[in-house]
Design brief:
The chain is an alpha/beta fold. 33% of the residues lie in helices and 24% in strands. The longest helix is centred in the middle third of the chain and has 20 residues, at 136-155.
Amino acid sequence: MTKILILGGGFGGVRCALDLDKKFKEQAQITLVDRNSYHLFLPSLYEVAAIYETNKDPFTVKMRKTVCIPYKDIFAGKKINFIQAEISAVDLKEKSVRTKGGEILSCDYLVIALGSQTADFGIPGVREYAYQFKNIDDAVAINVKIGKLIKKMDSGEKMDLLKILIGGAGFSGIEFAAEISCCVKKICRERGMRDKHAIITLIEAGPKILPMVSDSERNIISKRLTELGVVLMENSPIEEVGASFVKLKSGQILEGDMVVWTAGIKANEFLKSIAGLPVTDRGKIIVDENLLVQGWKNIFAVGDNQEFIDPKTQKPVPALAYTAVDQGKVVAGNIYNILNGKNTEAYKPYYGVWIAPVGGKFSSAHLWGGWKVSGFAGWIIRELVDLRYLVSILPFRKAIAVFRQEITMFTKND
């Protein structure tokens, strides 16, 4: 029986496993390995960091359940073996993977979907002092810290304004800044605290936020952020980060109660340890048009850990959830085709759609055909997109239950 091993249970890895299960009956043994017992729904991570009334969930169980979807639920009734383990070594020639627990997994086909990690761009202090924003523990840590600061303000121990500095004004930074502004406003208003409650500063190194969007869409997002009280600082590269400050390259020092880092991602450092794995200067796996790893006939790569050059633009395809899903589908199809003597399918990237939540029930969406929607309608579309994804990986009733829980928890800031 053909053994197919998938490393990583992100959007690409999960989709690849589910599609392989649909295509094969008894012809293949499908195994997915991940260090966690759950699939992290990253698009809603900012909601966890900024969720309201966490005192009612002291052990953060409900918070985690909204974005951490157990693999046992996703793979229930499927012919997919799940192994919770951390990878310690990969031998491409021997077609084997070793876990930190000492287990050796052999395979005929390998799919590398190990994701990415936070990029600090060599800036001093980022790793030591800034709150990272990549996984569920990061989001919970941010939420707990903000909760403690609010309590200090409430008790009078902290007399000045709450100051949050956010490094990086990409989609993640914008979503978090907007939502935390809504959260803090509601908490302070309900506790009878002064109107001017917080200064949330969003710092962008580039000349403008979200350079990939149109000027009209950028203006809508910028206006919304300003209305929420978020201070935008463009063309302000950071030189150093401390526990309570950010120093810009201009020499200006911004003081704050905490620094949150959302400035970008880079390839998983573990990839460098894999002998024979071709990587770019940025450490990402080099793949061909079929998403096969360059130089190998039985190894594929999907998601953030690989670099696929779009033949139309000659630029790398951006690391997005739905591009990883599309890649997972293509790889599953190609493995099936190879094993059945059929031609492989070239990956044809599409990434012209995006939806940016900007606090409360407000989102800016750029949809198929260039259709643009903002405000409450944009928020509805975003929720429907989330529901569609949940239904694609879970049984219908389970998907609805997760979606209902998410809506109940995450609309408390509105």
